[in-house]
Amino acid sequence: MSTLINNGTIINEGLSYKGSLVLVDERINRIIPAGEPLPEADVLIDAEGMYIVPGIIDDQVHFREPGNTHKGTIESESAAAVLGGVTSYMDMPNNTPATTTVELLETKNNLASLNSYANWSFYIGATNNNIDELKQINPSHTCGIKVFMGSSTGNMLVDDPVMLERIFKECRMLIATHCEDEPIIQENLRVAREKYKDNIPFSEHPYIRSREACIKSTKKAVELATRHMSRLHILHISTADEIELIKEASVGNPGITGEVCVHYMVLDKSDYYTYGSLMKCNPAIKEERDKNAIIKAVKDGIIKVVATDHAPHTLDEKSGDYLKAPSGLPLIQHSFQIMWDLHKAGHFTEYEVVDRLSHSPATNFKIVDRGYIREGYYADIMIFDPNLEDRRTTKSPAYKCGWSPFKERNFSSSIIHTFVNGEHIVKNGKLTGKKSAKRLEFNYGK
How many domains does the chain have? Predict the structure, then answer.
């Protein structure tokens, strides 16, 4: 089966040029600059006026299956992903039951093989007593070990210092951390409850899950990774201080990297009065200066991986008071559009948007043959219209939970087509019903 994507503007590896792609079966067969003869193909896609980019890779999502499928499933949330141009994702282990054994990890892989629209990998979760399970993981087939150094949805907190030491010393694969200091959070919560009783305002969230909690925990993770020369990837950075910690630490250990999520670049603490529970997430969205520092770090390449931490909950769950409303936002359908709007606002070049969403996640995780438009690579492709305003998808998103925190917002671009392993999964902004996703493979140790 061959497909010719004709006459679009290709953005890839720091270049932008008119051209066409030939996809044959699962792979990119040819990249053809404008003006060169075009071959015959079984299917022709006219990309005139559109941009062609590598599919987005999201390194942090919570698709809720197994255990909380009323919020989302692998099928529903991966459908939202491909509608947003995301062709590969890495899902977190805080399910019910938590993915903390090889057996449970393979159960999730089997679910994805039947139901996922996008390529996948699943983290295995660390606990205070599962080091033997962690050491059995094949790093070629698993994106990483997730360590909750602060509690969040599912409460998989790893707070045993001996176990943390062993994980960083003995597990020679990527360790992805949620960094918040639990004793600081619990003390801040005690003070807030004393002051507000059961009526804590959502604007207190960045003071309860404070910057000090993030900084202390990130310092601990960096110290462990520096001492053991571990491969550390710090997730959803929310403060300017943590960026400086990573910048300094990576000089001595280039295996220390970080990731930021799109909502930390468009919201700050002043927005709690507008969004309330709808922007409650862990770590908390903090001050405007943190937002600006995160944008600058992504611009400067100190932080090269941008993701979503996509975390759906029902509106009924989110409508509870501060103590009852769970943390997390559904975002995966709109990550590219958010980044493209930041580009149009002057924060990023078009090349930086593609790098931070596609190239750098592939490089950071050493994903085999994805994240770039290269001949011989898997044909994971997204085609978008930079001039077609999206007035629809935030109001009627594909998430099973049925809502978006940006429901009053129109985005300046629209995703038109998505290909996964050469299969046309999204056509003219709608699912085709086809599935061709694969388990991601990694070149760890090479």
Answer: 2
